[in-house]
Amino acid sequence: MPTIAIVDDETRYRNLDVKGVDRNLPKGWNAIGTAPLERLADYPSWIAENDVAVLIVDEELGNRSATPRGHVRYKGHDLVQSLRARNKTLPIYFLTDYAGNTPVKDQIPAVEGVFDKTAFRRDRAAYVKRLIRRGKDYFNSVKDQLADLNTLSLKIAKGEATNKEKMDAAAIQTNLELPLLTQSFNTRSDWLAEYDEKVKEFEKLKKEVQKYLEPKPRKAAKKR
User: Fold this and answer.
1) Residue environment code for 67-85, b if the CB has 16+ CB neighbours within 10 A, otherwise e
2) How many CB atoms lie within 10 A of CB 120?
3) In whole angstroms, what separates CA 214 from the centre of its chain?
């Protein structure tokens, strides 16, 4: 299920924001929140495990005790910088009272937008519409890239791919944070076995993405 996720160290406001977002989501979407994770390196797997399609990040992440060890030592702009080094297309937004601060301003090109907390909480419905549009674009992009990758991977497995096509496949895999299929194998049979496994994974993910994007049929009204 595609998810809008909020990272905020203040439990009360985080829970209120999650509930406010969730009330305005269409069917097939989910909203979750989390306190800052202990390490920046923990976020990519958390994002993948929770099917995050849009991420909202509070700038001040170290004001409250967020881990068993105490306050985290990074801020929202540090998290954005870390994620952008790995994922260039995930929609990320700042939620902050500090839009004018230099660290936030420096990271503005790396995010889709900066939301003022007061405005966001006053009219979550309008903001959620914007988030859903961007999240759908992201999922459509993932679906299209997986289709292209399937085609390229088949050509690579058959030994018919050009160097450019191999580079294109590697670029897609890097963008989607998938294991590279263009690595060296001891034998062609090893290559094909690995390819077959990855194609199964891609097909499963494509079906899941398509299911999320399909409009849900309306239930017929019960006759009285």
Assistant:
1) eeeeebebbbbbbbbbbbe
2) 19
3) 19
Architecture of domain 3-122: 3-Layer(aba) Sandwich (3.40)
Q: Within 55-123, where are the H helices?
A: 76-84, 102-107, 117-122
Q: Is the pLDDT of residue 163 over 80?
A: yes
Where are the domains positioned within the chain? 3-122, 140-213
Predicted TM-score (pTM) of this structure: 0.66
**Residues 47-58: tens digit of each pLDDT:** 888 889 999 999
DSSP state of 101: S
Q: Where does the pLDDT of residue 71 fall: very low under 50, low under 70, confident under 90, or very high at 90 and above?
A: confident
Q: How many Cβ atoms are within 10 Å of 99's Cβ, its own excluded?
A: 14
Whether residue 198 contacts residue 153, with contact meaning beta carbons closer than 8 Å, is answered with: yes
Confidence band for 195, pLDDT divided at 50, 70 and 90: low
